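Schema walk-through. Below, the input block comes first and the output block second. Nothing else is stored per chain. Lengths vary across the set, and this one has 338 residues.
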Amino acid sequence: MSTNPPTNVKFSVLDLAAVADGSTPADTFRNSLSLARHVEQLGYTRYWVSEHHNMAGVASSSPPVLIGYLAGGTNTLRVGSGGIMLPNHAPLIVAEQMGTLATLYPGRIDLGLGRAPGTDPVASRAIRGAAAFTAPDFPGDIEQLQTYFSAENRHGQVRAIPGEGLDVPIYILGSSTESAYLAGVMGLPYAFASHFAPTQFMAAVKRYRDNFRPSDVLQEPYVIACINVIAADSDEEAKYLGTTLEQMMLGVVSGRRKLMQPPVDSMDKLWSPAERQHVEHMLSLSFISGRDRLESDLQHFLAQTGVNELMASTHLYDHAARLRSYELFADVMQGVAA
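--- output ---
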């Protein structure tokens, strides 16, 4: 691993389109567009949305539609999926949808792919129908997508129109060493979900780099680390605002999911000691602080990991506080990675 922070580290956004208590998915989407326009002006590289289903508090069930809305409301920002859950979709449909977006917004669309369903088993069966009883072929589906996007497929029996011959970069997403190995041997960029599954992060990055094979699209390993970032004008304010994220993760741990909750003065009455320990582990690669501490913590993280890009996921109940957090994160990143 690196001993000095790498230079030219990109910084980006992951948006789960969380629905705040007292608001609607329509409010969430308007706030997402507001944030996308904001970060475009701040120098962010890309803005990804994730696929989730059957969750009242998460409105990102249709990434291609949301990507089109965000790309149409911005000018230069790359917009993409972080990710589309490939077991839920036929590769041809993904190629056609993303090909349509890449045709409408050339040079601005990313395709991040995940191997999990992004939902519970009951909803997964509702999404996949009879295919729910067959094992997904994640590597094979990625290869099929690459074929549909290739210009050489113009003589194929099945073609993605639009999509064929377009530059739609593919990223493999994961939270384990298995996905890291696949990304490495396929020579594709790799994005790790350290914002909720930090346990295997370092091992996965090492396995990805150790097994990387140069490809037509990538000559050297490229790692994106997705992290939780809650930045504020003081450590105390950030800690207070961060209780919204802690409540969200508590819902994941306990099964008592709610709409995104406002911050609280103390979490003590909301979680048990065991739940607190579990949540704190899930958030162990999170950065919740004022600007100065954020700068030193990110410098250490970048020096330790040598990642190429940081993708910030910021769950805040107040939209203005969320905009401010991304301002501070951009300010720090423009300094530590210059």
